[in-house]
Known about the structure:
The complex is a heterodimer. By secondary structure, chain A is α/β, with parallel strands linked by helices.
Amino acid sequence: MITLQGVSKYYQSSAPVLKDINLNIKPGEFVSIVGQSGAGKTTLVRLLIAEEKPTTGKIELGNWDITNISPGVIPYLRRQIGVIFQDFKLLPRKTVFENVSFALEVSDVPGARIRQIVPQVLNLVGLGDKFDRYPGQLSGGEQQRVVIARSLVHRPKVLIADEPTGNLDSINTEEIIEILKKINEFGTTIVLVTHNREVVNKLRRRVITLADGSIINDESEGKYTL
Amino acid sequence: MRSLYRIANFAFQDIVRNLGLSFMTILILVLMLLSVNTLWSLDIVTGKAVQMVRDQVTISFYLSADVTDQNTTELKSFISTFPEVVALNYLSREEVLKTFKDNHKYSPEILQALDELGGNPFGPTITVRTREPGDYRKILEALSVPEYEPLIESKSFSGNESALDRIQLITNRIEGIGFGLSLLFAIIAFLIIFNTIRVSIHSQRIEISIKRLVGANNWFIRGPYWLEAGIFTLLSIVITMVIVFVSLSWLDRYIGIVLGNQFSLTDYYRSHMLYLFGSQALAVLLLTITSSSFAMRRQLKV
Lengths: 226, 302
């Protein structure tokens, strides 16, 4: 599903952020990427969503070589993957419904289909009664659920979650992880970037540990070892 | 078609849900357009005033009393060949005498002296108006040849030469100042509109990056902003037009005192409405679209 071959990332006149990363994530896997601040986790996410290009190496997502993807094709790539961020990244002047439907509108999905899918997805994440609320009127946990609904609505094969529980309390964290597990059960590949020890240890799934830009550990049923 | 409808929908949503910023943007555009129209009106009024002064400047050629009709016709045809000549008025000997008598009907001494001279001592008069006061010199030079000089007894220009030079200088200065002011206003208008739109886009930079992250292409992101620019332009032009016409209807009575009642700025604006407001709308639209595209360029790179 996701393949990285010899990927390195350097910024001008600084030490490499990622060094010779070789990684293969199979379809349907639930992978946690852990590491301390500055380990290169966020850079890895930015490479996967084509916000950055690798200095060296090759990245494939599905059957798509995104190593040197052209700017015009990036929107099409992003419609194939779901992304969840710690700071939610919701459009503040759009309602819950509009935030989720926006992801379909950019893909030119007909209005009738949008009106059918969006309520289903919002019900799935437990926000069936908050369609007309604006992000500012929701709690952190609810906002993150809107983001999950938005990332799911176009049925992506891969869901990349960058510190999705970073701004949430333990109850909301548990709820979000449960939703991610449920999504994974439907066959979606999940890449979870986190430094939440408890979450990783409870999951008992594959854990990739990054330190100083390199993979130092990759276990199929791992634990948070840092 | 569906995308266009959605882009229009997003644009209207943005305007309504961001009412404060939309209001401020329109207000600044209206203020700028009002400044431009004020300058434009001033330019029209000073242009009209200068033209009125120019129209009153003429040069008269007083021909000898013994000049023949053939000589007069030749001279008139020769002067008419100059492209600078916009009007030529001819008074025959009889008409000159009649005018003289009318002008001095309350001066019996002068009329008595005229009778003592016997016959008509006046020659015909040719009065010429040129496009520019500076053009008179060219005509005078052309007539200072042995062929025509004996026919002309005197000219009314020599006494007015310095006055004409001053008028020429003043009108040139007014035109120069008008052009300079217009240029300055154009630069100020450009900078203010450019910055207003830039601030408006900058405040939405996070939204633009989010739209990019969920897979919106550049057209889908730019479209609503371009449409908003069009709506802001249209609204600001309409508001400006209303303010301009209301102000002009009040101002016209004062302008009429100075320039005469035959001139009305309202009539001028009405007859040139398409040109005046069309060119302003086009300029603002181009400026707002260019500014928004320029401001978004950075955000759309990611």
